[in-house]
Design brief:
The complex is a heterodimer of chains A (240) and B (279). Chain A has 240 residues and is of the alpha+beta class. Helices cover 27% and strands 28% of the residues of chain A. In chain A, the strands form two sheets. In chain A, strands 2, 3, 4, 5, 8 and 9 form a six-stranded antiparallel sheet that branches. In chain A, a hairpin with a 2-residue loop joins strand 6 (127-132) and strand 7. In chain A, helix 1 (50-63) runs antiparallel to helix 2 (73-86). In chain B, the strands form five sheets. In chain B, strands 1, 6, 7, 8, 11, 14, 15 and 16 form an eight-stranded mixed sheet that branches. A two-stranded antiparallel sheet of chain B has the order 2-3. A two-stranded antiparallel sheet of chain B has the order 4-5. The mean pLDDT of chain B is 91. Chain B is of the alpha/beta class and 279 residues long. Chain B is globular and about 50 Å long. The longest helix of chain B has 20 residues, at 37-56. Chain B has helices at residues 37-56, 93-97, 138-155, 178-186, 221-229, 235-243, 261-271; strands spanning 13-20, 28-29, 32-36, 57-58, 61-62, 66-73, 77-79, 91-92, 102-111, 117-126, 163-168, 188-189, 192-193, 195-201, 209-210, 255-259. In chain B, helix 1 packs parallel to helix 7 (261-271) and helix 3 packs parallel to helix 4 (178-186). Chain B has seven helices and 16 strands. Classes of the chains: A alpha+beta (240), B alpha/beta (279). At the A-B interface, helix 3 of A face helix 1, strand 4 and strand 10 of B.
């Protein structure tokens, strides 16, 4: 088998919560295909500068070269950049109070090696799904639609000490597809799968222009929660 | 299904507090001799407003998910939240956020992360001062609340149903408020009826009676009246009460009898937990 990844073999789609502007989208993703590193995060909207925090986590994770674990150098780097970002900002009492608490996000980081070994780490309910031979082969870290709650584990921008995280590893085969999603879409995905559907087929039909419309229709029929919605599709090589 | 409307900037809801300002509020909570009821209620409302503001605060500003008002009833019946007036009894939460009477520095004891307890300063905005003066014109307060909520519903017909939370330690002195309470609860948006919750503040020692589903255990005609005035708890509030550790039977009402300060705080928290559904 040759290289599983080549530059450009991922697609990403996102839509803000209905009623919010694109600038208010607080999910994030980042992809560094040459390094085989991918990340997705969901800024907790009750916290402040949460979208920036989610983006910094993703950017630092994919720029890092350390092994994938819950507290690589990327975490400290993201925290430093967040503190720099908010330092000196004008702050009425409510902003000052929230800045002291920090920003929070769920996070999932993935590394794929040239030989197809993959390893992921996750805090909270940003999810990874592995599709092989038109079937769902792995769901991580959430496995059932009813496991999504309103209080997922989060990584804080001012957090000190160990982070609650889960890990998973495996080996890809040619033709495998990995989907990364934030919680609203992941919950829909698992619920569809539990209803004996193949939701990845529906996602395969998406186009850049059609995603917002597709999301809007699912929200309207209440199958998809009204939340920031993000999808990253990573295609691995064909027969190599 | 009722009580499922999304609370958003384009579809905000309202929170209206009715606060007993009668002379007897100068007395202490039973079991807390040093704590005047008027002071405790003012602290609880200020803390609740602070938490609401913090829920809505983003780096780009405070999002107007709520319109908030406080009606005091004692020597007078009128809007008492700073910035409100009879002509403007509710304020968007962003306006509330930026106009407290003052911001006090207080300290709280917290874990420093290594298990050591440390004193940390925090900001405590004050919007609302304690008052204890006059009788208990609860009927007039509910009449005013009905007008305020009617006005809000005309502007926001599809909102999450407005919440009215009444805190009192006594018996109405103007008229029987049951009829106007029923009329207030009869108001509705497309998402359900207005919710009226009542908390009776303790004057006598004894455990609070929280969210009863029958008036049988209540000691007097006034507590039974407040029970009848109170809404049936809708599903989201039942869930909030269960999460807070309360045991509820079916058909529980939004009523707490003989509430001490801790119980008042939890009552307010449960009554406004729907606020956590905003993003």
């Amino acid at each position: 088998m040759g290289r599983l990844l080549s530059p450009g073999n991922y697609r990403a789609y996102w839509a803000p919560r209905q009623g919010n502007s694109p600038e208010e989208w607080e999910d994030a993703f980042a992809c560094n295909t040459p390094a085989g590193r991918f990340a997705i995060a969901d800024g907790a909207s009750e916290s402040i500068y949460a979208g920036e925090w989610a983006r910094l986590l993703c950017d630092e994770f994919v720029a890092d070269s350390s092994p994938v674990d819950e507290a690589g150098p990327w975490l400290g780097a993201a925290q430093r950049r967040w503190r720099d970002h908010v330092r000196g900002k004008p702050a009425p009492w409510h902003v000052a109070e929230k800045l002291e608490a920090g920003a929070f996000a769920t996070f999932l980081g993935l590394r794929i090696e040239a030989e197809g070994q993959w390893r992921a780490v996750a805090t909270g309910d940003s999810c990874l799904f592995l599709i092989r031979d038109d079937a769902l082969r792995a769901a991580f870290p959430v496995e059932r639609a009813n496991e999504f709650g309103s209080r997922p584990d989060l990584i804080g921008s001012r957090h000190r000490g160990p982070i609650r995280a889960a890990g998973m590893a495996g080996k890809l085969q040619a033709g495998d597809r990995i989907l990364l999603m934030t919680d609203a879409l992941a919950e829909w995905f698992l619920a569809e799968h539990e209803g004996s559907h193949s939701p990845w087929r529906e996602l395969d039909q998406l186009t850049d222009d059609g995603f917002a419309q597709w999301v809007g229709a699912r929200r309207k029929d209440r199958r998809l929660k009204n939340d920031d919605t993000t999808l990253v599709v990573i295609e691995t090589g064909g027969d190599g | 299904m009722p009580y499922t409307a999304e609370i958003s900037r384009t579809n905000p809801t309202s929170l209206l507090f009715l606060i007993d300002h009668s002379s007897s509020m100068d007395g202490s909570f039973a079991g807390q001799p040093g704590k005047k009821k008027a002071d405790g209620v003012a602290d609880a409302i200020n803390r609740l407003l602070q938490n609401l503001v913090l829920k809505c605060a983003k780096s780009t500003g405070v999002r107007d998910y709520f319109h908030v008002g406080v009606i005091g009833y004692g020597a007078e019946v009128k809007p008492v939240l700073v910035g409100t007036s009879p002509a403007r009894p509710l304020l968007p939460i962003s306006v509330v956020a930026n106009a407290p009477l003052r911001v006090e520095k207080r300290t709280r004891t917290t874990d420093d992360g290594s298990g050591k307890l440390v004193e940390r300063p925090y900001r405590f905005p004050v919007w609302f001062e304690p008052v204890a003066n006059g009788k208990t014109p609860m009927n007039a307060a509910l009449e005013l609340a009905k007008d305020v909520v009617t006005g809000f519903l005309a502007m926001h017909p599809d909102c999450f149903p407005p919440l009215v939370l009444n805190l009192t330690d006594g018996q109405p002195t103007d008229a029987n408020p049951l009829a106007v309470a029923q009329a207030l609860k009869g108001l509705k948006s497309s998402d359900g009826n207005v919710l009226l919750l009542n908390a009776h503040l303790s004057s006598a020692p004894g455990a609070p009676i929280a969210f009863p589903n029958s008036e049988d255990g209540l000691p007097d005609v006034f507590s039974k009246l407040l029970f009848r005035m109170s809404s049936l708890l809708p599903t989201p509030m039942v869930q909030a009460a269960l999460e807070e550790g309360y045991t509820l039977a079916g058909a529980a009402r939004g009523f707490m009898f003989n509430a001490d300060l801790v119980a008042v705080t939890r009552f307010l928290e449960i009554g406004t937990r729907v606020a956590s559904s905003v993003r």
